[in-house]
UniProtKB/TrEMBL annotation:
It comes from the Bacteria. InterPro entries: T9SS_type_B. The keyword Signal applies. The keyword Signal applies. Keywords: Signal. It holds the Pfam family CHU_C. Residues 1-18 form the signal peptide. This is Gliding motility-associated C-terminal domain-containing protein.
Length: 413
């Protein structure tokens, strides 16, 4: 039921504390709108249901219930000419939300937790949760758009569910996202925050594995697995505005990798990784992808280039050109038929799984340049040319062997 009379507007003529206060039931029907130029205060007794368009031009506080109807497409707009505070004792649930405020470079002060069910649009203005221990939560099917150096979350971002996800995090006016693929468990929960600063004396950069030559000491990501047990595919971004220049200098004896602070050994460990260049126009310059072995603090490292593995009974051909000429049309793992208990996974540069197969062989179960992964990737269209990341696991006697590396997919024309 949509009620119009449950909004109580209090005017304090001699003060600047005019407010729009809800103490009962307030509903915005589909295809209608409600706007408040005053501070909005949803009291403990207040139930606010937004299935229409709700425009907030000042501060927002929720101590009650803020929610929506699942079938609606309601949207809340935070728009203002001054800094806006988002606070309250309870988590506000938004179907869709838009941040668009040009009054300051950091116009949104996030002092509570808010949850997005569908889409968050980052138009203008950084959402500062780091200064107030605020958190932005994306539910299982939620995504975001338009994040850039002009608008992102400076603070914790949590994601719930099994979809691949770009975490819209940054710090000090720089958007520095991570990309996570969370396999198949919808109960997985992860939180990420980016810091444009040193990890500090409690994580000394001199304490590291021998293969690590140097570490990016001016930035890091903190990745927490709140719930779940899987080891995700993680992609970190490099940006010439924040990442040291030495990490962009090519050297045949060195390569980039992801490094993680390992609490059990009190040192930075080499998680390895595959590096790809990004398309022109991206706000960051390179991407490193790997499957992590744990969680905590991550950053980028320069490591000794690994020596090629000695010849074995498997030969992995890491380039395919699916143009139908009969040459390199598939991802060939020569000898894999001897080990039928195997699994092959292939990910694109964003850490999105595009292929997943058990009992990979040399005849019919093979990667041919088409997606066989997420429903978010078109299975009927050939994948774009570029660099991909593969993981191969197979049983050899009682031993499970794991191999990973890059795979270059050429054009199908």
């Amino acid at each position: 039921m949509y009620l119009k009379y449950s909004v109580i507007i209090l005017f304090f003529i001699n003060k600047v504390s005019a407010q729009t206060v809800n103490v009962g039931e307030l509903s915005v029907a589909p295809n209608t709108q409600l706007a408040t130029v005053f501070d909005f205060d949803n009291k403990l007794s207040g139930d606010f249901l937004n299935d229409g368009n709700f425009y907030v031009y000042s501060n927002f506080k929720n101590d009650g219930l803020v929610t929506f109807t699942d079938t609606s497409d309601g949207k809340t707009f935070f728009i203002g000419q001054k800094v806006q505070s988002i606070e309250g004792l309870e988590t506000a649930h938004f179907q869709n939300i838009e941040f668009n405020n040009l009054s300051d470079v950091t116009p949104f002060l996030l002092k509570t937790s808010i949850m997005v069910n569908k889409m968050s649009a980052f138009k203008n203005g950084i959402v500062d949760g780091a200064s107030f221990n605020g958190k932005m939560i994306f539910d299982q099917n939620a995504f975001h758009s338009d994040a850039s150096n002009l608008s992102f979350v400076d603070g914790q971002v949590e994601n719930i569910g099994n979809l691949n996800f770009e975490f819209p995090v940054g710090d000090n006016f720089y958007f520095r996202p991570t990309y996570h693929d969370k396999a198949s468990n919808i109960s997985n929960v992860y939180t990420t925050q980016y810091f444009f600063q040193s990890a500090g004396s409690t994580h000394p950069y001199t304490s590291r594995e021998e293969s690590i030559l140097s570490i990016d000491e001016v930035e890091y990501w903190n990745l927490i697995q709140n719930q779940g047990s899987e080891k995700i595919i993680l992609s970190l971004t490099l940006d010439k505005n924040t990442t040291p220049a030495s990490f962009f200098v090519e050297d045949p004896t060195k390569e980039l990798a992801i490094t993680r602070w390992d609490e059990s050994t009190s040192k930075w460990i080499n998680e390895k990784g595959v590096t790809t260049d990004l398309l022109t126009g991206a706000t960051y310059s390179k991407l490193i992808t790997t499957q992590v072995s744990g969680y905590g603090l991550f950053t980028i490292a320069m490591v000794k280039k690994a020596n090629p593995e000695p010849p074995g009974d498997l030969i992995i051909h890491n380039a395919i050109s699916p143009n139908g000429d009969g040459v390199n049309d598939t991802f060939l793992i020569k000898g894999i038929t001897k080990y039928p208990d195997n699994k092959v996974e292939i990910y694109n540069r964003w850490g999105i799984k595009v292929f997943d197969a058990n009992s990979y062989n040399e005849s019919d179960i093979m990667f041919r340049g088409f997606s066989d992964g997420r429903t978010t990737v078109n299975r009927d269209a050939g994948l774009p040319a570029g660099t991909y990341f593969y993981i191969l696991r197979y049983k050899k006697g009682d031993e499970t062997i794991s191999k990973s590396g890059y795979l270059y997919l050429g054009s199908d024309k």
